[in-house]
Design a protein that fits this description.
The protein is mostly helical. Among the domains are: 99 residues, Orthogonal Bundle (434 Repressor (Amino-terminal Domain)); 104 residues, no CATH class. 79% of the residues lie in helices and 0% in strands. It contains 19 helices and no strands. It is flat, with a radius of gyration of 25 Å. InterPro entries: Cro/C1-type_HTH (IPR001387), Lambda_DNA-bd_dom_sf (IPR010982), TPR-like_helical_dom_sf (IPR011990). It holds the Pfam family HTH_31.
Length: 414
Amino acid sequence: MAHETDAIRERKRALGRALADHRRAAGLSQREIAHRVHYTRTAVSHAEAGRHLPTRRFWADADDAVDADGALLDHFDQVRRAIGESERVQREREQTAFRRRARRDHSGYADGMAVTGAESESTSDDEAQELAAALHSARRVGPDVVALFAAQLAQIRTLDRRLGGGLVRDEVRAKIGQIEPLLRHSVDPATRRSLATVLTEYCTLAGWQCLDNGLLGEAWQHYENAKTAARESGNAALFAHVIAEQAFVLIDIGRTVDAAEVTGHALAAARQSAPAILLAWLAAAHGEALAADERPAQSLRAFDRAGRALPAETVHAETPYVAMNDVHLTRWRGHALARCGERSAVTVLSDALQALDPSFTRAETALRVDLTHALLHAGERDSAVEQAAQARTLAGQVGSVRQRRRLARLALSG
């Protein structure tokens, strides 16, 4: 890590004080917090003093333990962004200093005097060499390299759905950082399209991870980057998927009318080019947006369309990736029914829970939150409390701020 500035040290101390304040308000000791977050008491003490900054998982668990409703986690994310910006600025300063030293060392003047014209020429030469190197690296990208990026993405997706985005979020960002410069410096049209396709998928996954972590601004930007890459790919189905998934950010900030409009547009635009499984997914996404906008009849009609479009056998299109089969469609419909206050939601969601692949931990978390909602509406409070407890545990395991916040809102309203 780069040299820590006074401003960063103060931010860490402020975060530590916030943890201590929340802990005391909850009536917990450092030892009790340590037990709940699976750290030592000394580690908690150092975190409160600002001497050490534990991982995001620590702050997610601590936030949950003291019922901070995301405040601690948001504070941690602000600190991490400040640290990242500070490190970026310091790297730029170091690179500038290195280039200046390099120009002085290779100026070619025995007396060491700098000549403005020569320095400008040296700078131009450096830039030309950097560009040539970047173009050369991009030229080496072939189908095998793109396939490797895609295979790595498939592995990351498996970890993401089982263990949550917190474990692989940095890895996704790193891959985006590797692919973007290759795309920018590739001159072969076919290679550009292939890189743009896989970059779209990485950016879309990054957007969903941020959405699940309550980072709505970052999620939106990832989806904007995904749309840019999707346009470059020339894949209309891929673009439709991105804009429909971005609509979930709109739902989470209460822009439900916009979300319904966007998902409807995505569905209409994809009808001629998208595989059947994507059409089913887009129709279901439109159904969720309509349910969020309190249009139950239209929502259920959209889910009926999704059911008709869904292939009899689950066939995964190469791009875009969507997790969609009878079980996922059922749990999605159950979510909409719960939003609309339909009593049938309990049965539909319970059936989906029984049939869900246990490797979809994040999906199970959301499903149990939906079931909690449906049970509360049905007046089955004891069962709702039981489901909420299991959902809360799963949300902690996968680090889902989004689902913890949904649970908090249900507890307040229930």
